[in-house]
Design goal:
The chain is mainly α. The protein has 10 helices and no strands.
């Protein structure tokens, strides 16, 4: 088993042990990193559907950090996706924008916030790993002589980042335990600085 696969098992175990609120913050962090990477692409390479999910991701952040008024916005955002042409069972014949990594992770994060399920958090983790793998494939296909990073190390690096995120989030487990019923405004504001900011950092 490669190192990245061993680390993937560790992330799965940590997510199973985490509370639903902690998993919500984790998925928001992973989705944020993928979204900010996508937003940094040249404008003509950005997927309109993905960029259009930025307000939904912002609402997810507000919700997982204790603002209960965000629930309606997240619910509405998920419903709009479910009723759109992007939610389909047409396989390759349907629109594919919703399969972009940041878009998928954002939708998983919204579901994780609404329903608290382990599966959505685990799928978000895997989607980030897949995004790294796809990026490596893209680099390998380029004609430039740019050195392609070692795949096992690159995938392991992403998973180590996820484990560090989970370590950070665990430090706030007592506060986050009550986030679904609402946190004081000053607590939510503090958590934006102490959790959202470092979890959003792409480094």
């Amino acid at each position: 088993m490669d190192r990245w696969q061993e680390l993937s098992v560790l992330v799965e175990e940590r997510l199973k042990a985490a509370s639903a609120s902690e998993r919500g913050v984790f998925t928001a962090g992973v989705a944020e990193r993928l979204m900010s990477w996508h937003e940094a692409l040249p404008e003509d390479e950005q997927a309109p559907f993905t960029v259009g999910l930025r307000p939904l991701l912002n609402s997810v952040w507000e919700g997982v950090l204790g603002d209960t008024t965000a629930f309606s916005a997240v619910k509405r955002g998920v419903a709009e996706f479910m009723l759109s042409e992007y939610c389909h069972n047409d396989g390759q014949d349907g629109p594919d924008d919703a399969d972009e990594a940041a878009a998928t992770a954002t939708l998983y994060a919204a579901h994780a916030y609404l329903f608290g399920c382990y599966d959505f958090a685990n799928w978000t983790s895997r989607r980030a790993v897949e995004a790294v793998d796809q990026h490596l494939e893209h680099l390998a296909e380029q004609e430039e002589d740019e050195l392609v990073p070692d795949a096992d190390e690159a995938l392991a690096s992403e998973l180590r980042r996820q484990l560090r995120d989970l370590d950070l989030i665990a430090n706030y487990s007592k506060e986050l335990r009550y986030s679904n019923t609402g946190l004081p405004i000053d607590t939510s504001v503090r958590l934006r600085v102490e959790l959202r900011t470092p979890l959003s950092n792409r480094v």
